[in-house]
Specification:
Distance between the termini of chain B: 12 Å
Oligomer: heterodimer
Number of strands of chain B: 4
Helix content of chain B: 40-55%
Number of domains of chain A: 1
Largest sheet of chain B: 4 strands, antiparallel
Strand content of chain B: 5-15%
Structural class of chain B: alpha+beta
Shape of chain A: globular
Order of helices and strands of chain A: HHHHHHHHHHHHHHHHH
Distance between the termini of chain A: 22 Å
Order of helices and strands of chain B: EHEHHHEHE
Number of domains of chain B: 2
Number of helices of chain A: 17
Structural class of chain A: mainly alpha
């Protein structure tokens, strides 16, 4: 495919500026609020929410980058540059985690339970501030090394002049991705346990890591669909993306919506049938007052509604409809994160009951603004499709099919 | 013309030729047509004007039926026929009933898909006239075939055969019934 360099349309830079503006505004607001000690804890919890939502998309993008190398297929070629751009925002996500590491004591109850609480003390170094910080640094080193390697091969592939050379880079990325996914899954598991599960110092769930792997992959696919649907209206992607590409990605969205439900039900069913005091409080807090309503809404709108809609072939083949559905699921993803974080005990062990702070919105907008700015900056740096990929022409042809 | 004719079949070398010919056949007004290719060819549905199958709706119905059957079976056994107190939980314990109901949904949906597909395709069919054409076995390997049935309202042996010869076919065969 010569004659076109597949550069991103220039009007993306408009989004970049809007995102950055909104990001700066909301983050400044949040920081000003966090100066006063009585708001600090809520500001940090909101920050954790925004970090989990947007950072989760970035981490999901890294996972999907490896996934698409391993599986191959037409959807893999057309989604690659979008998820790669998402994975290249991981240095920013690394910076975003710093407030959490600095103010650990104002966010996690276990931080001051070490030495007094038997269970937390028994966990030893694992449940200390030093342990948490060390592990988080390790997670981000792993994520960033993976991201840099994969993006380097992909960039080198663009510079090749024949398919034999480009296939070598494709081979390297694919060989790296297989074991990479295993390491990635373990890393995300540990990260999810540290970042959100430990908010409740005594509660545990063995499927927690998978909830995040699946949830973040779903976030990533939904985000990518929105971007691709926008790009599909204009050149160069107009002549690349076809109905069948959206159909394929829509199927993956449907599958992940179902897996998310499956893992959540597994967790609930086991705790419900076990009915023991170590496990049930987490759900008891989330089944009464407003949180019970939120939980019910999650079943209805994070599962039932998207499931029924995404069953339809016509929806999956229509870029606009699929993008609307994707935005809807992304909103539910944020609510799902809030459902994990919001009802957790405060650092003094007390419980808030049902409350949604305006700082939650400020953090989602603020971190989202910065993150989107980084994403669009990265997306515009490279061609929107891997121009020298040996399978590019096949992938484009596939999308045009009936 | 002693033998009864099932239809006429044209042989093509490439999928593009087949699709072009199929469009012409449809434009000429033939409706009882069929195409045979060595691999799935998505364009042919549109070219021949084949309507979308009702199978997805049947499968959806089968799934709903399975879900209700699963829930109903558990409700009947655990609440009506043989209620047992399990750890003080209610007889109608919805969380515990979800996995079996889900399995039944999948089971019924899968059965509907398989048997519905067989039924809608008229399978199993031990005899089919198209196999009377010797070269038809190539449809599994490298050739593309287009069939117009004699049942078609517009079918007239000489006229249709003349028409099919204008389609750039390799050859046009009579398919004996």
């Amino acid at each position: 495919m010569t004659g076109s360099n597949f550069q991103a349309p220039a009007d993306l830079s408009r989004f970049r500026n809007i995102s950055l503006g909104a990001g700066i505004l909301a983050v400044v607001l949040l920081v000003v609020m966090a100066v006063s000690p009585e708001n600090r804890e809520q500001a940090l919890r909101s920050w954790l929410l925004g970090f989990n939502f947007w950072g989760g998309i970035a981490i999901g993008c890294l996972g999907v980058t490896m996934l698409q190398y391993v599986t191959g297929g037409a959807w893999a070629i057309v989604i690659r540059r979008t998820v790669e751009a998402g994975s290249r925002t991981l240095p920013l996500v690394t910076i975003l985690v710093i407030p959490i590491l600095v103010f650990l004591g104002s966010l996690y109850e276990w931080h001051h339970l070490y030495g007094t609480d038997k269970i937390v003390t028994e966990r030893g170094w694992f449940q200390t501030g030093a342990g948490f910080i060390t592990r988080t640094i390790v997670y981000f080193v792993i994520f960033n090394v993976m991201q840099v390697m994969l993006n380097r091969w992909s960039a080198a592939q663009d510079q090749t002049s024949n398919y034999e050379d480009s296939a070598k880079f494709l081979g390297s990325a694919t060989a790296f991705s297989g074991p990479g996914i295993v390491i990635f899954a373990l890393t995300v598991s540990f990260a999810a346990i540290d970042w959100t599960m430990s908010l409740d110092p005594h509660w545990f769930s063995t499927i927690w890591g998978f909830l995040y792997i699946v949830g973040w992959a779903l976030s990533c696919f939904c985000f990518a669909v929105v971007i691709l649907a926008y790009l599909s209206d204009k050149e160069p992607m107009k002549s690349v993306l076809g109905r069948r590409h959206f159909h394929d990605i829509g199927k993956l969205m449907l599958a992940l919506v179902m897996v998310w439900t499956y893992f959540n039900l597994s967790q609930f069913l086991i705790i419900w049938s076990g009915n023991i005091p170590e496990e049930t409080p987490w759900y008891l807090d989330r089944m009464k007052n407003g949180w019970g309503v939120v939980g019910f809404l999650l079943i209805l709108f994070h599962f039932a509604f998207p499931f029924i809609i995404l069953l339809s072939r016509d929806v999956k083949r229509n870029a606009r409809w699929l993008a609307i559905m994707a935005v809807f699921i992304l909103v539910m993803r944020a609510i799902d994160m809030l459902y994990h974080i919001g009802p957790s005990p405060l650092v003094d062990g007390s419980k808030l009951g049902f409350q949604i702070s305006w700082m939650d919105f400020a953090a989602l907008i603020g971190i989202g603004g910065f993150w989107l700015w980084a994403f669009f900056t990265q997306l515009m740096k490279r061609p929107l499709v891997p121009v020298m990929d040996p399978f590019l022409d096949n992938a484009i042809e596939h999308g045009k099919g009936h | 013309m002693d033998n009864k004719i099932y239809g006429l079949m044209a042989e093509f070398d490439s999928p593009t030729e087949l699709v072009d010919a199929a469009r012409k056949v449809r434009d000429a007004g033939y409706r009882k047509t069929d195409a045979f290719t060595p691999f799935p060819l998505h364009e042919i549905d549109e070219a021949l004007g084949i309507r979308r199958s009702i199978l997805p709706y049947l499968v959806f119905g089968g799934g709903i039926l399975g879900c209700l059957a699963g829930l109903g079976l558990q409700f009947y056994t655990h609440v009506i026929e043989y209620p047992i107190n399990v750890g003080g939980r209610p007889h109608f314990s919805l969380p515990a009933f979800i996995p079996p109901s889900y399995e039944m949904t999948i089971l019924f949906a899968a059965f509907t898909a398989v048997f519905g597909m067989l039924f809608l395709n008229g399978l199993p069919s031990p005899y089919h006239p198209v196999f009377n054409v010797e070269r038809f076995s190539l449809a599994m390997r490298e050739k593309f075939f287009l069939l117009i049935e004699s049942e078609d309202e517009k079918f007239d042996y000489d006229e249709t055969k003349g028409f099919m010869k204008t389609l750039n076919a390799q050859e046009v065969f009579d398919v004996e019934d």
